[in-house]
Amino acid sequence: MRKCMHKRMLLYILAACLATNCSRDEAKDVETPTIDMSDSRAFPTNCATLQRGESFLFRAVFTDNQALGNYNIEIHQNFDHHTHSGEATECPVDSPKQPVNPFVYNRSFAIPDGLTRFEATAEITVPPDVDAGDYHFMVRLTDRAGWQQLKALSVKVE
Question: What is the model's pTM?
Answer without folding.
Answer: 0.81
